[in-house]
Amino acid sequence: EAEDFATARHALLTHLQKRSRKHLARIEHIIDGADSTIVIAKADSTLRRSFTFWGVSRDLPQRIDWRRNPTKDKVWLFNLNQQKWMTEVAAAYAMTRDEKYARDFAVILESWFQQNELPRWKDERDPVWRLMETSIRGVNWLDAFFVFLASESLSDELKVRLLAALHDHAQFLF
User: Could you tell me if 56 and 50 are in contact, meaning their C-beta atoms sit under 8 angstroms apart?
Assistant: First the structure.
């Protein structure tokens, strides 16, 4: 049975790699005409866990606490949980093929998965699972997923877990 699952997982990921071209448009939009030094600098800030939203910068620990707000502005925490910055990490990877970006993407996903179980009900006061943050994060994860799909720094297990999390996000929204 485990062998059947491994074979099915491999077939799914191979199929998605063949279809990924059309899903890369948003990342290509970031790259096209962009100053690569700026894109890479933003991605490197993420690797250092240094984030700026709405002009407010904060340095976070390597293991982000997704519910802790280091500011007095709840919108800052919402932006952290939307994870738009993941597309910058993906763009830097697409530009450089430097596996440090893929490895960090994996670390961040694992951290997020460990701390954020799918809730039983919707609560707009929850900074992680507010509907807006859930939907934007899902789009950003999907965009990044197709960039990192061929990377060996992400295990096949993590790739499938991300697909399952995207499904959970969609189910939660509806």
Answer: no
Q: Token pair 């096209």 is at which residue?
A: 32
The Cα–Cα gap between 118 and 115 comes to 10
Which residue bears the tokens 């992680």?
Answer: 128
Greatest alpha-carbon span in the chain: 52
Cα 36 from chain centroid? 20
Q: How many other C-beta atoms are found inside a 10 Å radius of the C-beta of residue 83?
A: 22
- Return the DSSP state at 51: E
Pairwise CA distance, residues 103 & 151, whole Å: 9
Name the residue with tokens 């934007």. Answer: 136
Q: What is the pLDDT of residue 10?
A: 75
pLDDT mean over 76-98:
95
Q: Which tops the pLDDT comparison, 35 or 107?
A: 107
Residue 46 CA to residue 42 CA, distance in Å, equals 7
Tokens representing residue 30 in the block: 């970031």
Q: What is the pTM of this model?
A: 0.88
Give backbone dihedrals phi and psi of 155, rounded to 5 degrees, phi first: -70, 155
Question: pLDDT for 17-74, tens place per residue?
Answer: 766 566 666 677 777 777 889 999 999 999 999 999 999 999 999 999 999 999 999 9
Helices (DSSP H) in the chain: which residue ranges? Answer: 2-19, 25-31, 36-47, 74-82, 85-96, 99-115, 131-148, 156-173
